[in-house]
Amino acid sequence: MPDEPKCPFQTQQFGRPVDNNQHSQTAGPRGPMLMQDVHLVEKMAHFNRERIPERVVHAKGYGAFGTFTVTNDITEYCMADLFSEVGKKTDTFARFSTVGGESGSADTARDPRGFALKFYTDQGVWDMVGNNTPIFFVRDPLKFSDFIRTQKREPQNHLQPHWRRWDFWGEVPEALHQVMFLYSDRGTPKSARFMNGYGSHTFSMYNREGVRHWVKFHFKTEQGSENFSADEAIQMAGEAPDYSTRDLFEAIEKGDFPRWRMHIQVMPEADAANYEWHPFDLTKVWPHDDYPLIEVGIFELNRNPSNYFQDVEQAAFEPGNLVEGIGLSPDRMLQNRVLSYPDAHRYRLGVNYHQVPVNQPRCPYATYHRDGAMRVDGNGGGTVDYEPNKMGGPKETGQSIEPPMPVYGDGDRYDEFTCDDKDYYGQPKMFWNKVLDEGARERLCTAISNSMADSPDFIREKMLAQFAKVHEDFADGVKSRLEQPESQPIPIA
Ligand code: NDP
Ligand code: HEM
């Protein structure tokens, strides 16, 4: 049911009561409209400006507020205040999304899911902007926008043929690991409640002694993994395209609060130099046997937003929002994301996006930023607006103990990855051999061949060559399905 309005009668936006909201002002009962109808003009002008640009990726999403509770002491790795004692609680917000579709597209599309968490800590906002996969398609940000275009619409006819993605993936073998995740059963999760979340990148943590470890974040669903079959997902896209949005909202409304158990994997800083897998390569996991999961706490969602646009559409996450104790790593993708997100927010929401309540820190904060469009937080009032000063303005704390990040080498464009068969196919092999059972392998082959049905032969061939490097059965499974009459491609014009 709608909430009670703040005022019992309707007003214009500056408070004047509206005497008539049914009939525009006209010159006589059948005459033309009057320009002086301030109420009509205000109403139409506001309506024309109601839409803001949607997110260029992750446009379709839903979210909720919650609480994070520490269940295990990790202070030997991390000095962040939010992890300082078992039982400590921190307010949170989460937004879940699909990646490629527009804001009105179906929740159940085969697509990775965004898993973006905001922690309103006593020392500032920490954003954990992850996905429901521990890896990604590319490992250099130069390839990101090209990859995303393959998921979007074709320039000439605004259609979404699938051959574009297979053409790209055929040229980019590092994508195969994530491609296999995407076309496996977990490519179509039922809703956010039934999927895991991952920070995906390697981050760092440091303790009060200034000792750094590399870490990966894992949020395991306590509801269990549940997925739509490929056919169900397609059916739901037609019958209930907002299925997952509704699922989370209704669960929270009835008090069935979803939970995820947060874990970290921890690698001593020195291990990175010699670890079998490149530790800053976003297309790789760290196998659990090498770096076991260490429990940290429980992330629970327990309050629905009071207004979708205010809290969910205007939410702005950024991987660079870190708190003392959590740091970056040399992962190229992560380094780039630190720049891209605030840049996108300034375009989408405006320079003062940090003032929107869902984005605001819940701790005291004082910057020297002033002015800009839609400044509504007092703008610093009469306080001094430059630094350094002897006018009582806020000063730096001088207290950061983040250990310096060693860097070396000449500036150049390096291909630092191994780019051999083990690099491209080693972990996809582990996924095929160890994680998928026979039924899951069959479904993977079917989902891939269905998606490749519109791909011409030369694209099919380059993908089949990649699948064969994982396992002959994988290539054969896709090939035999592609040879069925219904999988013959329509020639590309
Ligand atoms: P483990 O055997 O220790 O664990 C397998 C992992 O696979 C679990 O985290 C499981 O999640 C997850 N999983 C199960 N089914 C799927 C699926 N359809 N899509 C994606 N993930 C799935 O694995 P290792 O750590 O030894 O790694 C072996 C392979 O497992 C890796 O090459 C990688 O492909 C995959 N994997 C590894 C992860 C990691 O962080 N090490 C994370 C996810 C996948 P759950 O426990 O929730 O069922
Ligand atoms: C959203 C860029 C990689 C997860 C976005 C947005 C941009 C962007 C511009 C829209 C932001 C907005 O308008 O609010 C990039 C770039 C990447 C990258 C340049 C690589 C170089 C990744 C990776 C992940 C990820 C690897 C997951 C591990 C997300 C999520 C959102 C998002 C979850 C939606 C956040 C929300 O709910 O508001 N990304 N992205 N992105 N991205 Fe990325």
From TrEMBL:
PROSITE patterns: CATALASE_2, CATALASE_3. Residues 11-395 form the Catalase core domain. It comes from the Bacteria. SMART domains: Catalase (SM01060). It is an enzyme of class 1 (oxidoreductase). The keyword Heme applies. Gene3D superfamilies: Catalase core domain. Keywords: Heme, Hydrogen peroxide, Iron, Metal-binding, Oxidoreductase, Peroxidase. InterPro entries: Catalase, Catalase_3, Catalase_AS, Catalase_clade1/3, Catalase_core, Catalase_immune_responsive, Catalase_sf. It comes from Rhodopirellula halodulae. The keyword Cell membrane does not apply. Residues 1-31 are annotated as: Disordered. Belongs to the catalase family. Residues 9-27 have a biased composition (Polar residues). SUPFAM superfamilies: Heme-dependent catalase-like. This is catalase. PANTHER family: CATALASE.
